[in-house]
């Protein structure tokens, strides 16, 4: 029984004495663990920042995709409008322009204004020629 107590005491003495074999190694392991945990925390912080940047990039990608779709739709609409404008230009070339329409209206108005005078001239001519017929 005494032997067990001596062995335990001797092991305790080696482990916990300042000059023991295991204390510097334990201190070094603790120090290494502290360094590892510091590095691990730095990695964790850096990973969180990268995740935030990735989320931001994905948000921007979605906005860029929406902008691209809008630009494509606008381009298609623009091309369709260009074709419609060309068709309208062709139709307008075949039809009278505004000046022609105004001129025709004035001619019709003049004919209506001058008609009573021409009727009066015709009646006068018939009245003059009536005695000779």
Summarize the structure.
With 133 residues, the chain is mostly helical.
Beta-strand content: under 5%
The class by helix and strand makeup works out as: mainly alpha
Task: Point out poorly predicted stretches.
Answer: 1-12, 17-21
DSSP summary: helix tally: 3
Helix content: over 70%
The first-to-last residue Cα distance is 175 Å
Rg (CA only): 54 Å
Structural commentary:
This protein is mostly helical and 133 residues long. 90% of the residues lie in helices and 0% in strands.
Characteristic terms for this protein:
90% helix, 133 residues, disordered N terminus, rod-shaped, mainly alpha
Produce the secondary structure layout:
Layout: H1 2-16, H2 22-94, H3 98-129
């Amino acid at each position: 029984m005494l032997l067990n107590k001596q062995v335990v005491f001797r092991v305790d003495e080696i482990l916990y004495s300042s000059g023991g074999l295991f204390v510097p190694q334990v201190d070094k392991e603790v120090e290494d663990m502290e360094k590892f945990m510091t590095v691990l925390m730095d990695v964790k912080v850096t990973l969180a920042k990268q995740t935030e940047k990735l989320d931001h990039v994905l948000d921007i990608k979605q906005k860029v995709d929406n902008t691209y779709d809008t630009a494509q739709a606008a381009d298609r609409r623009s091309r369709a409008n260009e074709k419609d404008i060309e068709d309208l230009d062709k139709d307008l070339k075949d039809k009278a322009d505004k000046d022609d329409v105004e001129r025709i209206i004035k001619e019709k108005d003049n004919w209506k204004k001058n008609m009573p005078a021409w009727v009066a001239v015709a009646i006068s001519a018939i009245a003059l020629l009536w005695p000779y017929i």
